[in-house]
Amino acid sequence: xxxxxxxxxxxxxxxxTLITATxxxxxxxxxxxxxxxxxxxxxxxxxxxxxxxIGYTVAFFTHNLWVGLGAAVLSGMIIASLHAVLSIGxxxxxxxxxxxxxxxxxxxxxxxxxxxxxSATSAGPGTFPHWDIPVLSxxxxxxxxxxxxxxxxxxxxxxxxxxxxILFRTVWGLRTRACGENPRAAETAGINVYFVRYTNxxxxxxxxxxxxxxxxxxxxxxxxxxMTGGRGFIAxxxxxxxxxxxxxxxxxxxxxxxxxxxxxxxxxVFHVGVPLQFLGxxxxxxxIVVVAGAMGRAIAxxxxxxxxxxxx
Amino acid sequence: xxxxxxxxxxxxxxGENGAGKSTLMNVVYGLVRPDSGxxxxxxxxxxxxxxxxxxxxxxxxxxxxxxxxPPLTVAENIVLGxxxxxxxxxxxxxxxxxxxxxxxxxxxxxxxxxRIADLSVGLxxxxxxxxxxxxxxxxxxxxxPTAVLTPQEIRGLFDVVRALxxxxxxxxxxxxxxxxxxxIADAITVMRRGQVVxxxxxxxxxxxxxxxxxVGRPVLLxxxxxxxxxxKGVLSxxxxxxxxxxxxxxxxxxxxxxxxxxxxxxAGVEGNxxxxxxxxxxxxxxIRNGTVKVEGTDISRTTTHERxxxxxxxIPPDRHRMGVVLELSVADNLVxxxxxxxxxxxxxxxxxxxxxxxxxxxxxxxxxxxxNPDQLVSSLSGGNQQKLVVARELGxxxxxxxxxxPTRGVDVGSIEFIHRQLLSERDxxxxxxxxxxxxxxxxxxxxxxxxxxRGKLVAVLDASDADRERVGLLMAGAA
Amino acid sequence: MSRRALRWAFSxxxxxxxxxxxxxxxxxxxxxxxxxxxxxxxLALFQGAFTNHNAFAETLVSTTPYVLLGLSVALGFRxxxxxxxxxxxxxxxxxxxxxxxxSIHGLPAVIEIPLGLLGxxxxxxxxxSIAGALKAxxxxxxxxxxxxxxxxxxxxxxxxxxxxxxxxxxxVSTPRTPDIDPGAVLPIILSGSRLHLGFILALLxxxxxWFLIERTTIGFRLRAVGFNQGAARTxxxxxxxTIVLTxxxxxxxxxxxxxxxxxxxxxxxxxxxxxxxxFDAIAVALLARSNPWGVLPAAFLFGALHNGASFMxxxxxxxxxxxxxxxxxxxxxxxxxxxxxxLLRLRRAPAETVAITQREVDTPVS
Lengths: 312, 479, 366
Fold this sequence. Notes:
The structure holds 3 protein chains of 3 kinds. Chain A is built from 13 helices and 2 strands. Chain A starts with a helix and ends in a 15-residue tail after the last helix. In chain A, 73% of the residues lie in helices and 1% in strands. Chain B has 2 domains: 10-215, Rossmann fold, CATH 3.40.50.300; 233-475, 3-Layer(aba) Sandwich (Rossmann fold), CATH 3.40.50.300. Chain B is built from 17 helices and 22 strands. Chain B has helices spanning 21-28, 51-57, 74-79, 92-106, 121-134, 151-166, 178-184, 207-215, 274-282, 304-309, 319-323, 330-334, 352-365, 382-395, 412-427, 439-445, 468-475, and strands at 10-14, 39-41, 44-46, 59-62, 85-86, 89-90, 139-143, 170-175, 187-192, 195-200, 233-243, 249-259, 263-267, 289-294, 297-298, 312-315, 345-346, 349-350, 400-404, 431-436, 448-453, 456-462. In chain B, the strands form 6 sheets. A 6-stranded mixed sheet of chain B has the order 4-7-8-1-9-10, sandwiched between helices. Chain B has a 6-stranded mixed sheet with strand order 16-19-20-13-21-22, sandwiched between helices. In chain B, helix 14 runs parallel beside helix 15. Chain B is globular and about 65 Å long. In chain B, 47% of the residues are buried. By secondary structure, chain C is mainly α. Chains in contact: A-B, A-C, B-C.
């Protein structure tokens, strides 16, 4: 038994789970803010990809990871505002406008990658350094998992608490929830539904952009086309499974990345005879099960997905 | 378009459905922008560009369909938009205190920490009124407030209104119910087709005067009804138990018989299980326990489609969500139930000639005002859409018709027409189960009156024994 | 011109046209930003699509799957369903179809080809029904389930094609399935090119789908459910079955697209998947306003873009991904008529929302 545990190395497994859950959680937090105000956001994938690309490109040319990070967040906000303008301002179907962002992201990153990055020969900006929090990182088990991480992961942990607080304790959060449940009622209370939705969509862009920065600036230190690999959609599932709450989204992200990591660990260490592809399917199948099962019980914001026209 | 309201008065805005009363008040509250004209408040001309402007002036509005957020609490709903906050953080304790203060002052008792979703409709209305008062409303607009209340609750509401007037506030009371106007109003403005046609008071006008002003011609306030000649039993409901969407019992051991040639009316305030009952009868909701038999055959396990084929018809209470498909044509809607059967379809291929001629026949018989059957239903008025639904269900010559809120949101002319249709079909042997929250409709059309309260049938009376007072008490669960 | 005819002209002709032009305009800006010459790039695009040797025929070859996939997505839209899974259905259809096509031997083409096609349609239909059933039974949103099923389908394809004893051909240098039986190959209809019978087949499916939607009871139910599920259910229409059937039909079309590519162009399957068909299909359906006849010109446009883009990438600095940018903006302008109206400064433009789908967030009654 102890040999099994040693081989499994649960501490490193959990540590990697937390790290790989970072982009999922950040994107899920963003999606959640957006949907809580009533706007569906399936563009998380595209926003993350854009964030990864812009973040890396800027960091590459300025030789500064932090500027790159800022650029990633900013680019996420800008491209999310396109989604906002289309779906809130021009009443385009929110799913369509989300898809547009995804297509656009592939196009933009592809074209400009070819022009600026593909043939680049100089060294990249590297990745974020590991920061060991003094004292806390020495605690057995918990220390290595939580307190020996890179910046984006720390940011994620802090943001979970921040978003939770904003959503349930502040005026902004109350108005957001009102707009997502019954925008007409919010309007009669004197709230500007458009403004609330715009701010939340752009905030979701910031979070997803940060999530994108994980890939190129924390994990790999490079940009590869389509490096987000569908993670934005898994983040959506995490949001649903987490019942549109920050802690729920975090737990769901951990579940998804954990099952993924456990699967590959079983494969590489124990040579469990399951083909690689089936392990790869696990997060997607799990997502389907979650969406099918959770839908009946999940409490989505009541007005999510429906365009709102003032005074209608 | 002229309207003048004075402080310390209840001003009734009277008109039939579609007359423009709600729209006018939405302008006053800033939800709709006027094309021309002026609004003056306290003698000063004002510009109301949005609800915030109206709220600042001291105007509050309680809409017909409540503007509440179900998952949030009473206190959260009341303070929304004018939150008591400390640097962005909401102070819910202070909010609850304020709510308690207000509810004590006006007799509107409610628990600030309860979620709206858990409150009854009457309590929700209280929250709506408190919302307006919290924002400092001096002019309160109530849009059809009594539609969802029992006669006793209505009396309670009137007491609150009088308390508000005593403080010098003004109340605009939008309604289409003449009796209420006579009781509560100090002044009356009558609207018809978007225009003010008269300004009067209960002292100067009688109900028939008012009805005539509302419609523009003399109106029959009571329909002529021949005595019923009930035949054999058509519908037999026995010990029916049906659950609602939240897995609570909505229909609680209901047993009822409806015979051919009679109209059985089910009176009750909306939300007491009527919708669940109708849905269960038509196969749109599963039956937990009990049986439903039509002419002796147990249909409890059949599909909606099968029930429609075997002689049942439903006029659904919610026309837009269940009754018509607005984006399809009148003809398509008229054959919606039967579209896949001959002569309207042969081997999956639709037969447009047969559909068209059937549609034209129904349009004529039921006086549906359309130019041609290929028009989209969205271009029809509410009354004509409802006539379409009635036509569709009666056109298949059913044995039993379940009529849910058959004249809701319909102009007086169409109401008369539909009532006459129901009575004449009943004279021809149709069994009718009428479910309506309009007590007058139930009382004037039914041969027998059942009262539903919290999912139970608390009484089944003959029409002669059913008077307003008695039925009202039964509807409220008393007696 | 009557008011109604003017509206039709606007929405069916002018709007798509302007949207496409605007898309190209934005694309030109992107090319400039990438440091290349838009005129050169578009010229190369045009040459690659039309004027190079056999280019036009190749464009028609590229158009073929877009027609079928566009029909698939459009059919879903009419029922209020967002079939993003066309791509996965395409691959599963290719898998099942190629299996049939390399397993049968020696029968005449008149039998082998239809068998192969049916195999493909069945696979796609089955795959799509999974999402349909999940939606009908559990209310699971088809956007998420179909996207997930797409990823699953890629992995399933990769697994089947890589594993010896399953669909891996013996003695090959790169993993792929065996070649299909010669009797299952779709004949070339234009000698000297790759244009095959599948193109005609795709063209024929357009009136078939049109007839299904407009003239049959199935199509009627589909539309009724797409417009108003509540009213459809009250009228006795089984919403659940309609959803499953619609998804199955849509999946069948997508699967057909997949097997047609195998029988007409590739003759086997490899373990790598070229992503992108799915997004393109949605763009085609949107541009066509979910109208089967509109799918033809829309699919042709995308086929031309697809074909021309690879030449453009060879000749210029511009990546083929540029067409995604063009596509995205074409969709934006099609889906938001008010933007176009604003740009053209039309005063009496329709200001309604373009209702692509009408979804209800209701929990299903079993």
